[in-house]
Amino acid sequence: MSQQIVILAAGKGTRMGADVPKVLLPLEINIDPSGKTEYKPVISYLLKEIQDIPQDTAPIIVVGFKQDLVKETLGDKFIYVTQFDQKGTAHAVLSAKDAVTAKNFIVLYGDMPFTRKESISKLIDMHNSNDAKISMFIAQLPNFENQYEHFLTFGRILRDGEGKIVKIQEYKDCSSEQKLISEVNPGIYMFNSNWLWDKLAQIKDDNAQNEFYLTDIVEMAINDNEQIYSLPIAPEEVYGINTPEHLEFARKLV
After folding, report:
1. Dihedral (Cα; 47, 48, 53, 58), 10-degree rounding
2. Contact (Cβ atoms closer than 8 angstroms) between residue 70 and residue 20
3. Environment class of residue 239 by beta-carbon count within 10 Å: exposed (0-12), middle (13-18) or buried (19+)?
4. Which of 89, 194, 187, 184 shows the shortest CA–CA distance to 131?
5. pTM
6. How far apart are CA 3 and CA 53, in angstroms?
7. What is the pLDDT, as a whole number, of residue 87?
8. What does the alpha-carbon distance between residue 43 and residue 46 come to, in Å, rounded to a whole number?
9. What pLDDT does 214 receive?
10. What pLDDT digit, counting tens, does each position of 101-150 carry?
11. In this predicted structure, what is the pLDDT of residue 17?
12. Is 66 left (phi over 0), alpha (psi -120 to 50) or beta?
């Protein structure tokens, strides 16, 4: 089946307080017997997981902030596209449009280092076997305490009586009852390419951040009566790094 992988890696990570792209922050620091220090950047873990997944082309990496440094660090094994303005996840994906030639592609995040090859492959297989327009991971949380507090502000998955996804309710718009829903959206999707490009053109930036959000695609699919295929993934695999505290906790997970 025709497929590609797109990795979003354009962010600066303002909350990290560092002057390097977020995906290049060192997640693991090793010192060999000779005293040489080796830094393993956040994105390197994901790149290792996807290297054996069948793809039509090399992985596509969307870069932005200090893109030359990202390219120099990661090397020439990838296709790089530039998101010139930071206008949200939908805008980042749209930046990759000219590089996507496959029938389907999956969107991953360079700041989620623990997403495993096995899970990605399962999502790809499910999407392809159903000839789906949109497929996504969902994460079921035991609670929102301690290490799971990270997921508190994730969008909640709303389902109907038959178990079908009917809405992704962003946390800020959740009622008190909806905030208790422990099934959340980590934001990893696989799309039919042609279907997605048509939908991306319809997304508006009429929100507080004036950004274009990929989550809006889910709402469009629901309105068009498209079935949304979902697959559970362990919360630990979709742990994103957005703050120094997240980075410190991720180092403990490593």
Report:
1. 40
2. no
3. buried
4. 194
5. 0.92
6. 10
7. 79
8. 6
9. 86
10. 999 999 999 999 999 999 999 999 999 999 999 999 999 999 999 889 99
11. 64
12. left
Instruction: Report the half-sphere exposure of 40 (CA within 13 A, side-chain side).
Output: 15
106 and 189 in contact (C-beta within 8 Å)? yes
Residues near 58 by Cβ (< 8 Å), separated by ≥ 6? 77, 78, 79
Q: How far apart are the first and last CA of the chain?
A: 33
Cβ atoms of residues 49 and 114 within 8 Å: no
Q: Using only the alpha carbons of the chain, give its radius of gyration.
A: 18
User: Per the structure block, which two tokens stand in for 167?
Assistant: 């809405």
Can you say how many angstroms the Cα of residue 224 is from the centroid of all Cα atoms in its chain? 24
Q: Which single residue is written with the structure tokens 């508190």?
A: 152
CA–CA distance, 175 with 220 (Å, rounded to integer) = 22
| Tokens coding 113 | 């280092």
Q: What is the pLDDT of residue 140?
A: 97
* Residue carrying the six token digits 């390097």: 20
pLDDT of residue 204: 76
pLDDT < 70: residue spans in the chain = 1, 13-17, 29-32, 35, 37, 205-210
